[in-house]
Write a structure and sequence with these properties.
The protein is an alpha/beta fold. The chain has 2 domains: 276 residues, Alkaline Phosphatase, subunit A; 65 residues, no CATH class. 25% of the residues lie in helices and 16% in strands. An 8-stranded mixed sheet has the order 3-4-2-1-5-16-6-13, with helices on both faces. Bound molecules: zinc ion. Zinc ion binds next to helix 9. Its cofactor is Zn(2+); Mg(2+). GO terms for molecular function: alkaline phosphatase activity; metal ion binding.
Length: 414
Amino acid sequence: MMRFFYDVAIFYAGIVTTTRITHATPAAAYGHCAHRDWECDTKIPESERAFGCKDLARQLVEDEPGRNINVILGGGEQVLRAKMNESKACVRGDGQDLVWNWMQYQRAQKRKYRYVRTREQLLDEGVHPSTDFLLGLFAPNHIPYDKERSLGPYGQPSLEEMTHQAINILSRNPNGFVEGGRIDHAHHDNLAKIALEEVVAFDKAIQKGLAMTNLDDTMIVVTADHSHAFSMNGYPKRGNPIEGVGDKTPEGFAYQTLSYINGPGYTIHRTTNNMPGTNSTLQTRNTWKDLSHLGVNVTSDRTQVHLAGFWMDSETHGGEDVPVFSTGPMGHLLHGVHEQTHVPFAMAYSLCIGPYETKCRKGGGGGGDHHSKGHGHPAGKTNGGSTPSIARNNNNLWLLTTTTVFLLAISHTC
Ligand SMILES: [Zn+2]
């Protein structure tokens, strides 16, 4: 989808994420790679390097469309430059400083560019009026969870703040991709409460996007690229805190409203003792830890690991359908559940780009009331009668997603 943006020179484009900028979902906006882990050169197997496979960080900085993306905000500084003692992000083996290379390229193109590393630098009032190309990397690895960010001047911005500044810069002709990427990470650790906090942070970014754009000419798409093995279960009473215990079994065993099918929460919720019981069924039940002390109140521990039904070191993604929500021009084409490849084509259709570039009536042309910005009309009948073309040009697009699959589906192997 993002490639469509760059096929049309008038578009500005941006990527905003709370993960490493080279992580699976944001990388799908600019990279072509056989494996999501090939974020820096040392992650590519020697045998594959011989085929000329290039790591995602270099693709972002050196190739089309990455080097022409106007706004790039996220984490993962270590992946692009020197080792920063971050064990969970890969370390370059080629000694390249890709941030420096990015600046050199922008300078050679005579562009107004800026590199920022802190919240204060990003929110500097002077940034957006004088910048056309902005690179911001705010952490060596992922940006910390929203409630764990450092809020000082040298800290990290929220997803909402990054979205705000991205739209400021892209407001000349914006298209963007915003990812609340750490919802996924909290789920993998069965940290339900942190996952919900990250959803709230994502929601604020959506609100910011809606407030700063005009739905007459801006399509906004909100979706997830996959689900998690996560469930709201039981019969909690109305008003019961969702992070707490939902109810008890007839025998008095309390259970949480939010639970996982698998993940580390299995062992954490089991006792090591085979506690005595009156029969084998009760004996088995007695190996579960007693949560009654939590009552219906929310534990103050936001890092409480929620129950999982099967042990895994990291909880898996889920396989069910995820919804797509959309508003703005042609927003009615995306609602509820769709086959995934329909989504980028609907977005391209709204923008009059890619396969639909010649199927739009361009602004200023004839045809009465339906040729300018805003709500276009499908070819054929309109209220005014027959209109043989579609007027949707000059629209903008913002895609907001919570995490990997559907954008990767339009990526290719390197
Ligand atoms: Zn995941």
